[in-house]
Design a protein that fits this description.
647 residues; 14 helices; alpha/beta; 6-stranded mixed beta sheet
Length: 647
Protein backbone atom coordinates (compact mmCIF):
# COMPACT_ATOMS: atom_id res chain seq x y z
CA UNK A 1 0.00 0.00 0.00
CA UNK A 2 1.01 3.65 -0.21
CA UNK A 3 1.52 3.86 3.55
CA UNK A 4 3.91 0.94 3.60
CA UNK A 5 5.88 1.98 0.53
CA UNK A 6 6.90 5.13 2.36
CA UNK A 7 8.42 3.00 5.09
CA UNK A 8 10.41 0.59 2.91
CA UNK A 9 13.69 2.10 4.02
CA UNK A 10 13.02 1.18 7.67
CA UNK A 11 15.37 -1.30 9.35
CA UNK A 12 14.16 -4.89 9.19
CA UNK A 13 13.15 -5.00 12.86
CA UNK A 14 11.23 -1.71 12.78
CA UNK A 15 7.52 -1.68 12.08
CA UNK A 16 6.78 -0.46 8.55
CA UNK A 17 3.54 1.10 9.77
CA UNK A 18 3.50 4.68 11.08
CA UNK A 19 1.88 5.18 14.50
CA UNK A 20 -1.36 7.15 14.35
CA UNK A 21 -3.64 8.50 17.07
CA UNK A 22 -6.91 6.86 18.06
CA UNK A 23 -8.71 9.96 16.73
CA UNK A 24 -7.12 9.41 13.31
CA UNK A 25 -8.01 5.70 13.47
CA UNK A 26 -11.67 6.64 14.00
CA UNK A 27 -11.57 9.27 11.27
CA UNK A 28 -9.99 6.95 8.69
CA UNK A 29 -12.21 3.94 9.39
CA UNK A 30 -15.41 6.02 9.40
CA UNK A 31 -14.35 7.77 6.18
CA UNK A 32 -14.42 4.37 4.45
CA UNK A 33 -17.77 3.38 5.98
CA UNK A 34 -20.94 3.90 3.94
CA UNK A 35 -24.34 3.17 5.58
CA UNK A 36 -26.05 0.07 4.24
CA UNK A 37 -29.07 0.39 1.88
CA UNK A 38 -32.49 0.50 3.51
CA UNK A 39 -34.74 -2.54 3.88
CA UNK A 40 -38.35 -3.02 4.99
CA UNK A 41 -38.82 -5.29 8.00
CA UNK A 42 -41.84 -6.47 9.98
CA UNK A 43 -42.71 -4.13 12.85
CA UNK A 44 -41.77 -6.80 15.40
CA UNK A 45 -38.21 -6.89 14.02
CA UNK A 46 -37.62 -3.13 14.02
CA UNK A 47 -36.42 -2.76 17.62
CA UNK A 48 -32.85 -1.46 17.74
CA UNK A 49 -32.83 -0.50 14.04
CA UNK A 50 -32.46 3.01 12.59
CA UNK A 51 -35.30 4.44 10.51
CA UNK A 52 -34.37 5.09 6.89
CA UNK A 53 -37.28 7.48 6.18
CA UNK A 54 -39.48 9.98 7.96
CA UNK A 55 -42.77 8.66 9.31
CA UNK A 56 -45.86 10.90 9.08
CA UNK A 57 -49.40 10.51 10.37
CA UNK A 58 -51.90 9.55 7.65
CA UNK A 59 -54.99 10.13 9.80
CA UNK A 60 -55.89 12.33 12.79
CA UNK A 61 -55.42 10.93 16.29
CA UNK A 62 -57.89 10.90 17.89
CA UNK A 63 -60.21 10.77 14.93
CA UNK A 64 -63.10 12.24 16.98
CA UNK A 65 -63.29 14.11 20.32
CA UNK A 66 -62.93 11.69 23.24
CA UNK A 67 -63.10 11.94 27.02
CA UNK A 68 -59.97 12.26 29.11
CA UNK A 69 -61.62 10.70 32.18
CA UNK A 70 -64.64 8.85 33.52
CA UNK A 71 -67.66 11.09 34.22
CA UNK A 72 -70.60 12.68 32.43
CA UNK A 73 -70.75 14.49 29.09
CA UNK A 74 -72.72 17.70 29.67
CA UNK A 75 -73.76 20.98 28.10
CA UNK A 76 -71.48 23.42 29.91
CA UNK A 77 -74.08 26.20 29.88
CA UNK A 78 -76.43 24.04 32.00
CA UNK A 79 -74.15 24.50 35.02
CA UNK A 80 -74.69 22.44 38.21
CA UNK A 81 -77.94 20.69 39.06
CA UNK A 82 -79.89 17.46 38.65
CA UNK A 83 -80.07 15.95 35.15
CA UNK A 84 -81.55 13.00 33.24
CA UNK A 85 -79.01 10.42 31.97
CA UNK A 86 -79.71 9.68 28.28
CA UNK A 87 -77.35 6.73 27.97
CA UNK A 88 -73.65 5.93 27.92
CA UNK A 89 -70.54 6.29 25.74
CA UNK A 90 -67.80 3.79 26.46
CA UNK A 91 -64.51 3.37 24.63
CA UNK A 92 -65.21 1.34 21.50
CA UNK A 93 -68.98 1.93 21.44
CA UNK A 94 -70.35 2.30 17.92
CA UNK A 95 -73.67 3.99 18.72
CA UNK A 96 -73.55 7.17 20.83
CA UNK A 97 -76.64 9.07 22.13
CA UNK A 98 -77.17 12.77 21.49
CA UNK A 99 -77.06 15.17 24.47
CA UNK A 100 -79.46 18.11 24.55
CA UNK A 101 -79.73 20.92 27.14
CA UNK A 102 -80.87 19.52 30.49
CA UNK A 103 -79.53 16.05 29.68
CA UNK A 104 -76.20 14.29 30.37
CA UNK A 105 -74.50 11.13 29.09
CA UNK A 106 -72.38 8.76 31.15
CA UNK A 107 -68.90 8.49 29.56
CA UNK A 108 -65.68 6.55 30.22
CA UNK A 109 -62.08 7.45 29.49
CA UNK A 110 -61.61 7.16 25.72
CA UNK A 111 -65.33 7.25 25.00
CA UNK A 112 -66.53 9.44 22.10
CA UNK A 113 -68.03 12.76 23.24
CA UNK A 114 -71.72 12.73 22.19
CA UNK A 115 -73.08 15.28 19.77
CA UNK A 116 -74.52 18.25 21.67
CA UNK A 117 -72.15 17.88 24.67
CA UNK A 118 -69.25 20.33 25.01
CA UNK A 119 -67.68 19.33 28.35
CA UNK A 120 -67.01 16.33 30.60
CA UNK A 121 -67.49 16.56 34.35
CA UNK A 122 -65.38 14.01 36.26
CA UNK A 123 -67.33 11.42 38.17
CA UNK A 124 -65.90 12.66 41.50
CA UNK A 125 -67.85 15.93 40.96
CA UNK A 126 -71.21 14.16 40.59
CA UNK A 127 -73.57 12.34 42.95
CA UNK A 128 -76.09 9.54 42.40
CA UNK A 129 -79.68 10.40 43.36
CA UNK A 130 -81.50 8.09 45.76
CA UNK A 131 -84.31 6.17 44.03
CA UNK A 132 -83.54 7.73 40.64
CA UNK A 133 -81.06 5.51 38.76
CA UNK A 134 -81.54 7.47 35.52
CA UNK A 135 -80.71 10.83 37.08
CA UNK A 136 -77.48 12.35 38.45
CA UNK A 137 -76.54 15.49 40.37
CA UNK A 138 -73.70 17.56 38.91
CA UNK A 139 -72.03 19.26 41.87
CA UNK A 140 -69.71 21.54 39.95
CA UNK A 141 -70.43 23.24 36.62
CA UNK A 142 -68.21 22.23 33.72
CA UNK A 143 -66.31 24.63 31.44
CA UNK A 144 -66.62 24.42 27.67
CA UNK A 145 -64.21 21.78 26.21
CA UNK A 146 -63.21 20.68 29.73
CA UNK A 147 -61.69 17.16 29.91
CA UNK A 148 -62.06 16.61 26.18
CA UNK A 149 -59.27 15.23 23.98
CA UNK A 150 -59.91 17.10 20.75
CA UNK A 151 -59.75 15.68 17.23
CA UNK A 152 -56.11 15.53 15.99
CA UNK A 153 -54.83 16.94 19.30
CA UNK A 154 -52.23 14.12 19.47
CA UNK A 155 -51.42 13.91 15.76
CA UNK A 156 -52.78 15.74 12.73
CA UNK A 157 -52.64 14.41 9.20
CA UNK A 158 -49.16 15.10 7.84
CA UNK A 159 -47.51 15.55 11.24
CA UNK A 160 -43.99 14.11 11.32
CA UNK A 161 -44.07 11.40 13.97
CA UNK A 162 -40.53 10.03 13.60
CA UNK A 163 -37.46 11.20 11.71
CA UNK A 164 -35.12 9.33 9.42
CA UNK A 165 -32.14 8.43 11.59
CA UNK A 166 -34.17 7.84 14.75
CA UNK A 167 -33.19 4.75 16.70
CA UNK A 168 -36.22 2.51 17.19
CA UNK A 169 -36.90 1.78 20.85
CA UNK A 170 -40.08 0.51 22.54
CA UNK A 171 -41.78 3.94 22.33
CA UNK A 172 -40.92 4.23 18.63
CA UNK A 173 -42.40 0.76 18.00
CA UNK A 174 -45.57 2.01 19.68
CA UNK A 175 -45.67 5.12 17.49
CA UNK A 176 -45.18 3.07 14.33
CA UNK A 177 -48.08 0.87 15.39
CA UNK A 178 -50.20 3.94 16.18
CA UNK A 179 -49.87 5.29 12.64
CA UNK A 180 -50.32 1.88 11.04
CA UNK A 181 -46.76 1.25 9.79
CA UNK A 182 -46.43 -2.54 9.75
CA UNK A 183 -43.21 -2.72 7.68
CA UNK A 184 -41.02 0.29 8.49
CA UNK A 185 -38.06 1.16 6.27
CA UNK A 186 -34.89 0.74 8.34
CA UNK A 187 -31.14 0.35 7.93
CA UNK A 188 -30.27 -3.36 8.02
CA UNK A 189 -28.12 -5.07 10.60
CA UNK A 190 -24.46 -5.19 9.63
CA UNK A 191 -23.15 -8.68 8.86
CA UNK A 192 -19.90 -9.24 10.75
CA UNK A 193 -17.62 -12.23 10.22
CA UNK A 194 -15.55 -13.12 13.30
CA UNK A 195 -12.42 -15.25 13.17
CA UNK A 196 -9.61 -16.05 15.60
CA UNK A 197 -6.13 -16.84 14.27
CA UNK A 198 -3.34 -18.83 15.89
CA UNK A 199 -2.03 -22.40 16.13
CA UNK A 200 -2.18 -22.11 19.91
CA UNK A 201 -5.98 -21.85 20.05
CA UNK A 202 -8.43 -24.58 21.01
CA UNK A 203 -12.23 -24.58 20.92
CA UNK A 204 -13.94 -23.54 24.13
CA UNK A 205 -15.53 -26.96 24.60
CA UNK A 206 -12.16 -28.73 24.94
CA UNK A 207 -12.37 -30.91 28.10
CA UNK A 208 -10.71 -29.50 31.21
CA UNK A 209 -7.19 -30.87 31.53
CA UNK A 210 -7.01 -31.96 27.89
CA UNK A 211 -5.26 -28.92 26.40
CA UNK A 212 -1.77 -29.63 24.98
CA UNK A 213 1.10 -27.63 26.43
CA UNK A 214 1.04 -24.02 25.18
CA UNK A 215 -2.60 -24.20 24.04
CA UNK A 216 -5.38 -21.92 25.30
CA UNK A 217 -9.12 -21.83 24.75
CA UNK A 218 -10.31 -19.28 22.21
CA UNK A 219 -12.07 -16.67 24.36
CA UNK A 220 -11.77 -13.86 21.81
CA UNK A 221 -14.23 -15.26 19.30
CA UNK A 222 -17.02 -15.89 21.80
CA UNK A 223 -16.43 -12.49 23.36
CA UNK A 224 -16.50 -10.56 20.09
CA UNK A 225 -19.55 -12.46 18.82
CA UNK A 226 -21.36 -11.31 21.97
CA UNK A 227 -20.06 -7.75 21.52
CA UNK A 228 -21.37 -7.68 17.92
CA UNK A 229 -24.75 -9.02 19.00
CA UNK A 230 -24.91 -6.30 21.67
CA UNK A 231 -24.62 -3.79 18.81
CA UNK A 232 -27.51 -5.48 16.93
CA UNK A 233 -25.21 -6.95 14.26
CA UNK A 234 -25.65 -10.31 12.53
CA UNK A 235 -22.64 -12.55 13.16
CA UNK A 236 -20.91 -15.12 10.94
CA UNK A 237 -18.72 -17.43 13.04
CA UNK A 238 -15.67 -18.22 10.90
CA UNK A 239 -14.02 -20.37 13.58
CA UNK A 240 -10.32 -20.70 14.35
CA UNK A 241 -7.79 -20.33 11.53
CA UNK A 242 -4.25 -21.64 11.93
CA UNK A 243 -1.12 -19.64 11.18
CA UNK A 244 -1.05 -20.56 7.47
CA UNK A 245 -1.54 -18.13 4.61
CA UNK A 246 -3.68 -20.55 2.63
CA UNK A 247 -6.07 -21.04 5.56
CA UNK A 248 -6.46 -17.28 5.98
CA UNK A 249 -7.26 -16.86 2.28
CA UNK A 250 -9.93 -19.58 2.45
CA UNK A 251 -11.52 -17.94 5.49
CA UNK A 252 -11.56 -14.56 3.74
CA UNK A 253 -13.17 -16.05 0.62
CA UNK A 254 -15.83 -17.73 2.78
CA UNK A 255 -16.66 -14.49 4.61
CA UNK A 256 -17.06 -12.67 1.28
CA UNK A 257 -19.23 -15.44 -0.15
CA UNK A 258 -21.54 -15.28 2.89
CA UNK A 259 -22.12 -11.54 2.43
CA UNK A 260 -20.07 -10.10 5.28
CA UNK A 261 -19.91 -6.31 5.49
CA UNK A 262 -17.16 -6.42 8.10
CA UNK A 263 -14.47 -8.99 8.89
CA UNK A 264 -12.92 -8.94 12.37
CA UNK A 265 -9.87 -11.11 13.03
CA UNK A 266 -7.93 -11.45 16.27
CA UNK A 267 -4.21 -12.21 16.43
CA UNK A 268 -1.60 -12.29 13.69
CA UNK A 269 -1.16 -8.51 13.34
CA UNK A 270 2.08 -7.95 15.26
CA UNK A 271 5.72 -8.46 14.21
CA UNK A 272 6.23 -12.22 14.60
CA UNK A 273 7.06 -14.64 11.79
CA UNK A 274 3.61 -16.21 12.19
CA UNK A 275 1.73 -12.90 12.07
CA UNK A 276 0.24 -13.33 8.61
CA UNK A 277 -2.91 -11.17 8.67
CA UNK A 278 -1.23 -7.99 7.46
CA UNK A 279 0.50 -9.73 4.51
CA UNK A 280 -2.86 -11.23 3.48
CA UNK A 281 -4.55 -7.83 3.64
CA UNK A 282 -1.76 -6.18 1.65
CA UNK A 283 -2.16 -8.83 -1.06
CA UNK A 284 -5.97 -8.73 -1.20
CA UNK A 285 -6.75 -5.08 -0.43
CA UNK A 286 -5.44 -1.80 0.98
CA UNK A 287 -4.22 -1.33 4.55
CA UNK A 288 -5.08 2.15 5.85
CA UNK A 289 -3.31 1.91 9.19
CA UNK A 290 -1.33 -0.76 11.03
CA UNK A 291 -0.41 0.75 14.39
CA UNK A 292 -2.27 3.03 16.81
CA UNK A 293 -0.80 5.04 19.68
CA UNK A 294 -2.83 3.50 22.48
CA UNK A 295 -2.58 1.10 25.39
CA UNK A 296 -3.72 -1.61 25.05
CA UNK A 297 -4.04 -2.40 21.33
CA UNK A 298 -1.09 -0.84 19.48
CA UNK A 299 -1.06 -3.36 16.53
CA UNK A 300 -4.69 -2.55 15.56
CA UNK A 301 -5.02 -2.75 11.76
CA UNK A 302 -7.71 -1.54 9.35
CA UNK A 303 -8.00 -2.43 5.66
CA UNK A 304 -10.56 -2.43 2.88
CA UNK A 305 -11.02 -5.06 0.19
CA UNK A 306 -12.85 -3.98 -2.97
CA UNK A 307 -15.55 -6.45 -4.05
CA UNK A 308 -16.99 -6.33 -7.54
CA UNK A 309 -20.76 -6.33 -7.96
CA UNK A 310 -22.69 -8.99 -9.82
CA UNK A 311 -24.91 -8.45 -12.86
CA UNK A 312 -28.40 -9.71 -13.63
CA UNK A 313 -31.81 -8.18 -14.04
CA UNK A 314 -33.36 -9.14 -10.70
CA UNK A 315 -30.53 -9.95 -8.30
CA UNK A 316 -27.82 -7.49 -9.25
CA UNK A 317 -25.56 -6.41 -6.39
CA UNK A 318 -23.48 -3.22 -6.46
CA UNK A 319 -19.73 -3.10 -5.93
CA UNK A 320 -18.80 -2.68 -2.28
CA UNK A 321 -15.90 -2.69 0.14
CA UNK A 322 -15.33 -5.31 2.80
CA UNK A 323 -14.12 -3.52 5.94
CA UNK A 324 -11.47 -5.57 7.72
CA UNK A 325 -10.20 -5.03 11.26
CA UNK A 326 -7.19 -6.96 12.48
CA UNK A 327 -7.37 -6.82 16.27
CA UNK A 328 -4.53 -7.82 18.62
CA UNK A 329 -4.65 -11.34 20.02
CA UNK A 330 -4.60 -10.48 23.72
CA UNK A 331 -8.22 -10.64 24.94
CA UNK A 332 -8.34 -7.22 26.58
CA UNK A 333 -6.61 -5.56 23.63
CA UNK A 334 -9.07 -7.12 21.22
CA UNK A 335 -12.15 -6.02 23.16
CA UNK A 336 -10.87 -2.49 23.87
CA UNK A 337 -9.96 -1.89 20.22
CA UNK A 338 -13.30 -3.38 19.15
CA UNK A 339 -15.17 -0.91 21.38
CA UNK A 340 -13.10 2.11 20.38
CA UNK A 341 -12.86 1.62 16.61
CA UNK A 342 -15.09 -1.21 15.37
CA UNK A 343 -18.25 -0.23 17.27
CA UNK A 344 -18.45 3.27 15.68
CA UNK A 345 -18.09 1.67 12.24
CA UNK A 346 -20.91 -0.83 12.94
CA UNK A 347 -23.13 2.00 14.16
CA UNK A 348 -22.47 4.09 11.05
CA UNK A 349 -23.16 1.09 8.79
CA UNK A 350 -26.52 0.70 10.54
CA UNK A 351 -27.38 4.39 10.11
CA UNK A 352 -26.65 5.92 13.52
CA UNK A 353 -25.88 9.59 12.87
CA UNK A 354 -23.48 10.00 15.80
CA UNK A 355 -21.74 6.63 16.03
CA UNK A 356 -18.99 7.52 18.51
CA UNK A 357 -18.90 6.25 22.09
CA UNK A 358 -20.62 8.56 24.55
CA UNK A 359 -18.34 10.56 26.88
CA UNK A 360 -18.81 11.70 30.46
CA UNK A 361 -16.49 13.42 32.93
CA UNK A 362 -15.79 11.41 36.08
CA UNK A 363 -13.61 11.56 39.18
CA UNK A 364 -11.08 8.84 39.92
CA UNK A 365 -11.49 7.05 43.25
CA UNK A 366 -7.91 5.80 43.54
CA UNK A 367 -4.43 6.62 42.19
CA UNK A 368 -3.90 5.45 38.58
CA UNK A 369 -0.41 4.87 37.11
CA UNK A 370 0.35 6.61 33.82
CA UNK A 371 2.35 5.40 30.83
CA UNK A 372 4.93 7.85 29.40
CA UNK A 373 4.95 6.03 26.03
CA UNK A 374 1.24 5.78 25.17
CA UNK A 375 -2.16 7.14 26.25
CA UNK A 376 -4.07 4.41 28.07
CA UNK A 377 -7.68 3.28 28.14
CA UNK A 378 -8.13 2.12 31.72
CA UNK A 379 -11.01 -0.27 32.38
CA UNK A 380 -13.40 0.91 35.10
CA UNK A 381 -16.97 0.89 36.28
CA UNK A 382 -18.90 4.02 37.22
CA UNK A 383 -20.71 4.83 40.45
CA UNK A 384 -22.64 7.86 41.62
CA UNK A 385 -21.25 9.79 44.58
CA UNK A 386 -24.12 11.48 46.43
CA UNK A 387 -21.92 13.87 48.39
CA UNK A 388 -19.88 14.96 45.39
CA UNK A 389 -22.88 15.03 43.07
CA UNK A 390 -20.87 13.43 40.29
CA UNK A 391 -19.86 10.13 38.71
CA UNK A 392 -16.86 8.34 40.21
CA UNK A 393 -14.78 5.72 38.38
CA UNK A 394 -13.54 2.60 40.15
CA UNK A 395 -10.77 0.60 38.50
CA UNK A 396 -11.38 -3.05 37.66
CA UNK A 397 -7.90 -3.92 38.96
CA UNK A 398 -4.78 -5.09 37.16
CA UNK A 399 -4.75 -3.77 33.60
CA UNK A 400 -2.46 -6.26 31.83
CA UNK A 401 -3.69 -6.77 28.27
CA UNK A 402 -3.96 -10.55 28.69
CA UNK A 403 -6.01 -10.27 31.91
CA UNK A 404 -9.62 -10.51 30.76
CA UNK A 405 -10.78 -10.07 34.35
CA UNK A 406 -9.99 -6.36 33.89
CA UNK A 407 -13.01 -6.14 31.55
CA UNK A 408 -15.41 -7.81 33.99
CA UNK A 409 -18.17 -5.35 35.02
CA UNK A 410 -16.40 -2.56 33.10
CA UNK A 411 -18.81 -0.02 31.64
CA UNK A 412 -16.24 2.69 30.87
CA UNK A 413 -12.78 3.23 29.45
CA UNK A 414 -10.93 6.05 31.21
CA UNK A 415 -8.83 8.18 28.86
CA UNK A 416 -5.52 8.56 30.69
CA UNK A 417 -2.94 10.94 29.23
CA UNK A 418 0.46 9.89 27.95
CA UNK A 419 2.59 11.01 30.90
CA UNK A 420 4.94 9.91 33.65
CA UNK A 421 4.00 9.38 37.27
CA UNK A 422 0.59 8.70 38.73
CA UNK A 423 -2.82 10.32 38.38
CA UNK A 424 -3.95 10.87 41.98
CA UNK A 425 -7.30 10.16 43.56
CA UNK A 426 -9.92 12.76 42.73
CA UNK A 427 -8.61 13.57 39.26
CA UNK A 428 -11.21 14.56 36.67
CA UNK A 429 -10.93 12.41 33.53
CA UNK A 430 -12.97 11.57 30.44
CA UNK A 431 -14.74 8.22 30.47
CA UNK A 432 -15.94 6.53 27.27
CA UNK A 433 -19.09 4.50 27.90
CA UNK A 434 -18.94 0.96 26.57
CA UNK A 435 -21.60 -1.71 26.32
CA UNK A 436 -24.68 -2.33 24.23
CA UNK A 437 -26.34 1.05 24.71
CA UNK A 438 -25.78 4.56 23.40
CA UNK A 439 -26.47 5.95 26.88
CA UNK A 440 -26.08 5.02 30.54
CA UNK A 441 -28.77 2.45 31.26
CA UNK A 442 -27.34 0.36 34.07
CA UNK A 443 -28.28 1.23 37.62
CA UNK A 444 -25.30 3.03 39.08
CA UNK A 445 -24.26 2.27 42.63
CA UNK A 446 -24.72 5.22 44.95
CA UNK A 447 -23.06 6.83 47.96
CA UNK A 448 -19.48 5.91 47.08
CA UNK A 449 -17.16 8.06 49.17
CA UNK A 450 -13.91 9.50 47.80
CA UNK A 451 -11.28 9.64 50.58
CA UNK A 452 -10.31 13.14 51.76
CA UNK A 453 -8.22 14.76 50.54
CA UNK A 454 -7.82 13.35 47.03
CA UNK A 455 -4.31 14.71 46.39
CA UNK A 456 -2.78 16.79 43.65
CA UNK A 457 -4.12 16.14 40.17
CA UNK A 458 -1.23 17.14 37.90
CA UNK A 459 -0.50 14.33 35.50
CA UNK A 460 3.19 14.18 36.37
CA UNK A 461 3.02 14.92 40.10
CA UNK A 462 5.50 13.33 42.46
CA UNK A 463 4.68 12.34 46.02
CA UNK A 464 5.28 15.84 47.39
CA UNK A 465 1.70 16.49 48.49
CA UNK A 466 0.70 14.91 51.78
CA UNK A 467 -2.71 13.43 52.34
CA UNK A 468 -4.70 14.36 55.41
CA UNK A 469 -4.40 11.95 58.28
CA UNK A 470 -5.84 11.76 61.76
CA UNK A 471 -3.08 13.83 63.43
CA UNK A 472 -5.13 17.05 63.73
CA UNK A 473 -2.81 19.02 61.46
CA UNK A 474 -4.59 21.87 59.67
CA UNK A 475 -5.66 21.21 56.09
CA UNK A 476 -5.04 23.70 53.30
CA UNK A 477 -6.90 23.25 50.01
CA UNK A 478 -5.47 24.15 46.60
CA UNK A 479 -7.87 24.12 43.63
CA UNK A 480 -6.57 24.56 40.08
CA UNK A 481 -9.29 25.68 37.66
CA UNK A 482 -8.28 25.01 34.06
CA UNK A 483 -9.94 23.36 31.06
CA UNK A 484 -6.64 22.49 29.38
CA UNK A 485 -4.79 21.23 32.44
CA UNK A 486 -7.75 19.12 33.57
CA UNK A 487 -7.72 17.42 30.15
CA UNK A 488 -4.02 16.66 30.51
CA UNK A 489 -2.97 19.03 27.71
CA UNK A 490 -0.30 20.55 29.96
CA UNK A 491 1.02 20.08 33.48
CA UNK A 492 -0.37 22.15 36.32
CA UNK A 493 2.31 24.57 37.50
CA UNK A 494 0.22 27.03 39.52
CA UNK A 495 -1.19 24.53 42.04
CA UNK A 496 2.18 23.10 43.13
CA UNK A 497 3.60 26.64 43.24
CA UNK A 498 0.89 27.73 45.69
CA UNK A 499 1.80 24.78 47.93
CA UNK A 500 5.48 25.68 47.69
CA UNK A 501 4.87 29.33 48.67
CA UNK A 502 2.51 28.44 51.53
CA UNK A 503 5.05 26.00 52.93
CA UNK A 504 7.55 28.86 52.98
CA UNK A 505 5.15 31.28 54.65
CA UNK A 506 3.69 28.91 57.27
CA UNK A 507 5.55 27.71 60.33
CA UNK A 508 2.60 25.42 61.05
CA UNK A 509 2.92 22.03 59.35
CA UNK A 510 -0.20 21.41 57.26
CA UNK A 511 -1.70 18.77 55.02
CA UNK A 512 -2.40 19.93 51.45
CA UNK A 513 -5.58 18.83 49.71
CA UNK A 514 -5.08 19.49 45.99
CA UNK A 515 -7.64 19.20 43.20
CA UNK A 516 -8.04 20.15 39.55
CA UNK A 517 -11.31 20.89 37.74
CA UNK A 518 -12.33 22.40 34.37
CA UNK A 519 -13.73 25.92 34.04
CA UNK A 520 -17.30 24.86 34.81
CA UNK A 521 -19.35 26.16 37.73
CA UNK A 522 -20.75 22.76 38.89
CA UNK A 523 -17.28 21.19 39.10
CA UNK A 524 -15.72 24.20 40.85
CA UNK A 525 -18.62 24.40 43.28
CA UNK A 526 -18.46 20.67 44.06
CA UNK A 527 -14.70 20.78 44.69
CA UNK A 528 -15.01 23.81 46.99
CA UNK A 529 -17.82 22.20 48.96
CA UNK A 530 -15.73 19.06 49.33
CA UNK A 531 -12.80 21.06 50.70
CA UNK A 532 -15.04 22.95 53.12
CA UNK A 533 -16.58 19.67 54.28
CA UNK A 534 -13.09 18.23 54.79
CA UNK A 535 -12.37 21.04 57.27
CA UNK A 536 -9.87 23.09 55.28
CA UNK A 537 -8.81 26.22 57.17
CA UNK A 538 -7.69 27.90 53.94
CA UNK A 539 -8.49 27.22 50.28
CA UNK A 540 -6.56 28.91 47.48
CA UNK A 541 -7.99 28.70 43.96
CA UNK A 542 -5.94 29.51 40.88
CA UNK A 543 -7.42 30.43 37.52
CA UNK A 544 -10.81 31.46 36.19
CA UNK A 545 -10.87 35.05 37.55
CA UNK A 546 -10.56 36.98 34.29
CA UNK A 547 -13.23 38.48 31.98
CA UNK A 548 -13.43 35.56 29.50
CA UNK A 549 -16.71 33.68 29.12
CA UNK A 550 -15.38 30.54 30.83
CA UNK A 551 -13.73 32.44 33.71
CA UNK A 552 -16.33 31.51 36.35
CA UNK A 553 -14.40 30.83 39.57
CA UNK A 554 -15.88 33.84 41.47
CA UNK A 555 -19.39 32.83 40.38
CA UNK A 556 -18.88 29.28 41.66
CA UNK A 557 -17.39 30.55 44.92
CA UNK A 558 -20.44 32.77 45.48
CA UNK A 559 -22.63 29.64 45.53
CA UNK A 560 -20.56 28.20 48.38
CA UNK A 561 -19.67 31.21 50.52
CA UNK A 562 -21.73 33.42 52.83
CA UNK A 563 -19.37 36.39 53.34
CA UNK A 564 -17.17 38.24 50.86
CA UNK A 565 -14.00 40.25 51.62
CA UNK A 566 -13.28 42.67 48.76
CA UNK A 567 -10.16 44.06 50.42
CA UNK A 568 -8.20 40.92 49.49
CA UNK A 569 -8.92 41.45 45.79
CA UNK A 570 -8.07 45.16 45.99
CA UNK A 571 -4.73 44.39 47.64
CA UNK A 572 -3.83 41.74 45.05
CA UNK A 573 -4.73 43.98 42.10
CA UNK A 574 -2.73 46.88 43.56
CA UNK A 575 0.32 44.64 44.08
CA UNK A 576 0.13 43.37 40.50
CA UNK A 577 -0.23 46.90 39.12
CA UNK A 578 2.76 48.03 41.19
CA UNK A 579 4.68 45.08 39.70
CA UNK A 580 4.05 46.46 36.21
CA UNK A 581 1.10 44.30 35.15
CA UNK A 582 -1.48 46.71 33.65
CA UNK A 583 -3.94 43.90 32.85
CA UNK A 584 -4.36 43.29 36.61
CA UNK A 585 -7.34 45.65 36.48
CA UNK A 586 -9.19 42.90 34.53
CA UNK A 587 -8.87 40.41 37.37
CA UNK A 588 -11.95 39.64 39.48
CA UNK A 589 -10.01 38.10 42.38
CA UNK A 590 -11.60 38.25 45.80
CA UNK A 591 -11.87 36.30 49.04
CA UNK A 592 -14.86 34.89 50.87
CA UNK A 593 -15.68 32.47 53.66
CA UNK A 594 -17.83 29.39 54.07
CA UNK A 595 -18.18 28.45 57.73
CA UNK A 596 -14.67 28.32 59.21
CA UNK A 597 -12.96 28.16 55.79
CA UNK A 598 -11.37 31.17 54.10
CA UNK A 599 -11.30 30.92 50.27
CA UNK A 600 -8.99 33.16 48.24
CA UNK A 601 -9.04 33.49 44.44
CA UNK A 602 -5.52 33.71 43.01
CA UNK A 603 -4.64 34.37 39.36
CA UNK A 604 -3.88 31.50 37.00
CA UNK A 605 -0.48 32.85 35.87
CA UNK A 606 2.33 31.28 37.92
CA UNK A 607 4.41 34.47 37.92
CA UNK A 608 1.56 36.38 39.62
CA UNK A 609 0.91 33.91 42.44
CA UNK A 610 3.78 34.94 44.73
CA UNK A 611 3.04 38.64 44.14
CA UNK A 612 -0.59 38.20 45.18
CA UNK A 613 0.15 35.97 48.17
CA UNK A 614 2.78 38.45 49.37
CA UNK A 615 0.09 41.14 49.30
CA UNK A 616 -2.60 39.34 51.34
CA UNK A 617 -0.93 36.64 53.40
CA UNK A 618 -0.13 38.87 56.43
CA UNK A 619 -3.90 39.12 57.08
CA UNK A 620 -4.79 35.49 56.31
CA UNK A 621 -4.05 33.76 59.66
CA UNK A 622 -5.91 36.42 61.68
CA UNK A 623 -8.92 36.25 59.33
CA UNK A 624 -9.04 32.48 59.88
CA UNK A 625 -8.81 33.10 63.66
CA UNK A 626 -11.89 35.32 63.46
CA UNK A 627 -13.75 32.64 61.48
CA UNK A 628 -12.96 30.09 64.19
CA UNK A 629 -10.71 28.04 61.95
CA UNK A 630 -7.43 26.26 62.66
CA UNK A 631 -4.55 28.29 64.10
CA UNK A 632 -1.89 29.01 61.45
CA UNK A 633 1.47 30.36 62.57
CA UNK A 634 3.45 32.44 60.06
CA UNK A 635 7.13 31.89 59.38
CA UNK A 636 8.78 35.07 60.73
CA UNK A 637 11.79 34.58 58.45
CA UNK A 638 9.60 34.85 55.36
CA UNK A 639 6.55 36.99 56.12
CA UNK A 640 5.23 39.25 58.88
CA UNK A 641 1.79 38.04 59.97
CA UNK A 642 -0.59 40.52 61.59
CA UNK A 643 -2.23 39.50 64.87
CA UNK A 644 -3.37 41.78 67.69
CA UNK A 645 -1.33 41.61 70.92
CA UNK A 646 -2.08 38.46 72.89
CA UNK A 647 -3.27 36.55 69.80
Amino acid sequence: SGLRSKMDACPSLASPWPMISIADANRISLMHTIPLPAVAVPLGQSLGRVLAADVTAQEPIPAVPTSIMDGYAVVAADGAGDFDIVGGSRAGDGTIPVVSPGKVCYITTGGCVPAGADAVVMIEETQKLQGAPDRVRVLKAGRARQNIRETASDMAVGDKVLNAGDLVGPAEVGLLATVGIVRPSVLPQAVVAICSTGDELAEVDAPVGSLPRGTVRDSNRAMLIAACQAESATVLDMGIVGDEQGSLDKMLDAAIAQGANVLVTTGGVSMGDKDLVKPMLEKRGSIHFGRVLMKPGKPLTFATISLAGSGGDTKATPARNLLVFGLPGNPVSSLVTFQLVVVPVLRKLMGIADPMLRRVRVYTSEPLPLDPARPEYHRAYLCWDDGLGALVAKSTGGQRSSRLLSMRSADALLQLPQASGCLPTGSLVTALLIGHSLSITSALQSSVAIPFPPGCVTSTSEATFKLAGNDNKPIVGVLTVSDRASRGLYDDVSGPLIVEVLKEYLATECHYMCRMVPDEVPFIEAALRQMVAAGCALVCTTGGTGPAERDVTPEAMALVCSKRYDGFGEAMRRASLDAGVPTAILSRQCAASAGKTLIINLPGKPNAIRTCLDAVFPAVPYCIDLLGGAYLQGNPDKVKVFRPPGK
